[in-house]
Amino acid sequence: MKVIIGSKNPAKILAVQTAFSHYEAVIMSEDVPSGVNDQPFSDEETIKGAINRAYGSLQASRGQIGIGLEGGVQKTEYGLFLCNWGALAEKGQPPIIAGGARIPLPDGVAARLLAGEELGPVMDDYAKKENVRKNEGAVGIFTNGQINRADMFSHVMKLLIGQYEYRKRG
């Protein structure tokens, strides 16, 4: 089985590799555009980005399975929350979709996003680190390392693969 992930982000690649570790699968990554804003601002937009990456990765590398993982934020009456979504694509099939953990962002971070900045650079500045998005992610910073970005996307991948296996059972 050839699985293509529509991202070069190490945290996303690790999540896919971990999820498919019990399969005979070749995992490849392609830099596939999400087709949404750099900072998705709703569940709908984040889901769309994941689906676009999943099907785009299939087209880019002729795999059997395309994976799209997308992080975004969702505005609620309780503040701005991290959201993350994944999609698994197979040619000729509707996408399999799953979402994961949600936690509120601190007001100062949320204010910068609402003012038009993207979470990745804001987190680098906030945490005084480089490439937070490619390592622990905002979720890792705000959970004190209890859950990192790869863990968060690994959970989404388990939900995707479980649905994939269920669909294959017919």
Automatic annotation (TrEMBL):
<dbReference type="GO" id="GO:0000166">
    <property type="term" value="F:nucleotide binding"/>
</dbReference>
<keyword id="KW-0460">Magnesium</keyword>
<dbReference type="Pfam" id="PF01931">
    <property type="entry name" value="NTPase_I-T"/>
</dbReference>
<dbReference type="GO" id="GO:0046872">
    <property type="term" value="F:metal ion binding"/>
</dbReference>
<keyword id="KW-0546">Nucleotide metabolism</keyword>
<dbReference type="InterPro" id="IPR029001">
    <property type="entry name" value="ITPase-like_fam"/>
</dbReference>
<comment type="function">
    <text>Phosphatase that hydrolyzes non-canonical purine nucleotides such as XTP and ITP to their respective diphosphate derivatives. Probably excludes non-canonical purines from DNA/RNA precursor pool, thus preventing their incorporation into DNA/RNA and avoiding chromosomal lesions.</text>
</comment>
<dbReference type="GO" id="GO:0103023">
    <property type="term" value="F:ITPase activity"/>
</dbReference>
<dbReference type="InterPro" id="IPR050299">
    <property type="entry name" value="YjjX_NTPase"/>
</dbReference>
<comment type="similarity">
    <text>Belongs to the YjjX NTPase family.</text>
</comment>
<dbReference type="GO" id="GO:0009117">
    <property type="term" value="P:nucleotide metabolic process"/>
</dbReference>
<dbReference type="InterPro" id="IPR002786">
    <property type="entry name" value="Non_canon_purine_NTPase"/>
</dbReference>
<keyword id="KW-0547">Nucleotide-binding</keyword>
<protein>
    <recommendedName>
        <fullName>Probable inosine/xanthosine triphosphatase</fullName>
        <ecNumber>3.6.1.73</ecNumber>
    </recommendedName>
</protein>
<dbReference type="InterPro" id="IPR026533">
    <property type="entry name" value="NTPase/PRRC1"/>
</dbReference>
<keyword id="KW-0378">Hydrolase</keyword>
<keyword id="KW-0479">Metal-binding</keyword>
<feature type="domain" description="Non-canonical purine NTP phosphatase/PRRC1">
    <location>
        <begin position="6"/>
        <end position="157"/>
    </location>
</feature>
<comment type="subunit">
    <text>Homodimer.</text>
</comment>
<keyword id="KW-0464">Manganese</keyword>
